[in-house]
Amino acid sequence: MSTRTDWGRREPPLKGSNFELYGWFFMRISGLLLVLLAVGHMFIMHVFNDTLNLDYEFVAARWDTPYWRIFDWLLLTLSLLHGTNGLRVVLHDNLNDLTIRKLALSALYGTSLIFFILGTYVIIAFVSQS
Amino acid sequence: MAYQKIVSSGAVYKGKTGMWLYIFHRITGVALFGYLILHIISTALILLGPEVYEGAEAIYKNFYFRIAEIGLMAAILAHAINGLRIIAVDLWKRGSEFQKQLNIISLVLFIAIFIPSTYKMTTSYFDICLEKSQAGTTLTDCMIRPLPDWKSK
Question: Is domain A22-125 annotated with CATH 1.20.1300.10?
Answer without folding.
Answer: yes
